Amino acid sequence: MPLEISEKFKVDEKDIKEILNNFSSSGELFGNGDRNKIKLFKLDGKTINIKSFKIPNLINKIAYKYFRKSKARRSFEYATILLEKGIGTPAPLAFLENFNFLGLKDSYYVSEHLITELTYRELVEIPDFPDHETILRQFTKFCFDLHEKGVEFLDHSPGNTLIKKIDENNYAFFLVDLNRMNFHNSMSFEQRMNNFRRLTPKKEMIAVMSNEYSKFYTEKSEAEIFENMWQATVDFQESFAKKKRIKKKLKFWKS
Fold first, then answer.
1. Is 226 exposed, middle or buried (0-12, 13-18, 19+ CB in 10 A)?
2. The whole model's pTM is what?
3. Number of domains into which the chain is organized
4. Are 137 and 237 within one domain?
């Protein structure tokens, strides 16, 4: 049972192993568990979060054993890198990979469980959310800092940034669902703008974010930033809608 534990949590190794051994029969289910199953457990008086990744198909079983790192391993390693770069994410505790003769059988990622007030999704779905523009502008600065540090978060979607209120005027941001990331020495303008494409279909939010981003990224005008950020968003929305139509047709023919 290849288990790797963060140095900071080596003292809890025995308890973490026991929790993982009893994952299927204990713990509190968090979320709907449609694709990956997440459960909450108590460890030394604190709540931890264990994500059990969906069992891979045969091709991925082999790939994750011989050619690619598992999602659990990537989540652990990327969280470690993010924290080293001063970027918010729940602290990584451990990851576990179980292999059989075919390849990867299952895998688990263990992290601290953060309780936060909202995610970026609430900003999209609730236009009159308290402090909406302040949060959106601080989130945009957080994204700029990500890009300056060479972090391309490929799953930068509405539910994957947790937002916590620090005081009356300040918010902190934490990335989750970390297994798809690229790290660069520097990011191009196109990469930066594409990284916003999945966040919101609302033009008024793009206008605020492009305005805020232009305060820090001075190589392009606000108009150029808005145009490119909005075009990346439109392209993504059209592609997403096309995929949904194709899936709907396939379901119709199958039925």
1. buried
2. 0.91
3. 2
4. yes
